[in-house]
Amino acid sequence: MDDGQLIPHLFRTEYRKIVSVLCKYFGWDGIENAEDIASETFLTAAQTWGLNGIPSNPTAWLYSVAKNKAKNHLHRRQILQNKIIPSLKSQETDEDPIDLSPQNIIDSQLQMMFAICHPSIATEAQIGLSLRILCGFGIEEIADAFLTNKETINKRLFRAKEQLREGKIKIELPTPVEIETRLSPVLTTIYLLFNEGYYSISQDKPLRKELCLEAMRLCTMLVENRDTNKPQVNALLSLICFHTSRFDARLDENGQIILYKEQDTSLWNTDLISKGGYFLQQAASGNKLSRYHLEAGIAYWNTQQADTKEKWENILQFYNRLLQIEYSPIAALNRTYALSKVNGKEEAIIAAEKLDLPDNHFYFALKGELYTSIDNEKARQNFQKAYSLAKTHADRQAIQKKIDKLANIPG
Amino acid sequence: MDEYLILMRLDNIVKEEPPSPEQMQEYMRRYQDWVGGIAAQNKFVGGTALSMEGKVIKPKDVITDGPFAEVKEWIAGFITIRAKDFEEAVSLARLCPILKGEGNSVEVRKITGGHNG
Lengths: 411, 117
Prior knowledge:
The structure holds two protein chains of two kinds. By secondary structure, chain A is an all-alpha fold. Chain A is built from 20 helices and no strands. At the A-B interface, helix 15 and helix 16 of A face helix 1 of B.
């Protein structure tokens, strides 16, 4: 990784760790201080490393600076209870009140995850705050993910922090009785984070590998903790592994999307595929079928490149059930594609025409695919509509390729 | 958009042999395809299968076995969908695969209000 990429990368991975530890330490009243200290640390890093070069152990450097800034802050503000100040006075010992050891970093983040995703806070606010504090998303990126604007997000986060403060929500893991319900928004956030990395509309770059790996890391933390290691968590991790396995094959050297059919399967990460399989098996316990189980099942079949009827029948059935649990336009479109592979294009066209997605460019791209070699004029029209609705450069390029290919077919 | 109940009734009089496991799988597949098609249109609200046994209660506290009484069809289950009118609800319901079996039927009813009003 070159210097220009190092700081953004570190910002992502280390910001959340530093903020989580400091937040846990300062409590909700000090959450803005925790964020400020973390941000200042990275600002200092950017300035200092720009002048002096990157230190040999950048992470240790960041932690050391963060701790010092926090201590200075504590001294200046004196916002602490008495029990903390005496411990500061005993600073002559090696005892470090701000514990940035690996275990405490993991524990703090897990606790923060659950604290932020608390039922008393609106779901959107939970996700927004998680993206901000746990993942270091910028306000603009969060706004893009929610298809809204910065002011709305800022208000939402402000209100959420107020509620956490007023509710005196404890930064700790929920009890075993509560864990199942409390897990749900946490998993949604991780899922959204993964999607943002995988599809990334906001940066107009199809892939943000680091975000996907962040999602994987957060989910892995849940799996590695005995109290949170539930079937649906394993299912989510399984699907993340399966999708991520195709990362390197998904983009060419110009940043263009390579469609599934055309991917170089030697670039598929077999280690991740087997991890996905392992977690899918771990998920096959208990009697509840979550949406993540279904999506993991679909993701599994997508790692089998052979175009068999069995593959598409399974994928179709998974999408049938997934849509009954929760409708989404993408699931509806993917289901229709699977239908075309199982029962033929004509039947899929009938189903596709019943879908009501007038602003969705994937919808028209799908119809273009389905009509190709059935009715090429309709195919052309649909692709053109898809092109006009496409939001990213990569998508437009992919659609243009289809239009060009059609132009070379007579009639 | 209103909600409609689609009630599925299967012919109780078994004319041929009961379906084999493979046939059952095929029926399930077609059924799930039908429901999946409705769900893909974002018109699926919920679904429930019903047990084969049941009881029928009549006036004067008469309770008999079986949900079918004199009717030779029994309700296999029902789903709830969203549709803008009866015509649309029927257009979705008529594709139910049980209709390929003679004697089966599908009933469509509009849900006109809960017990909360």
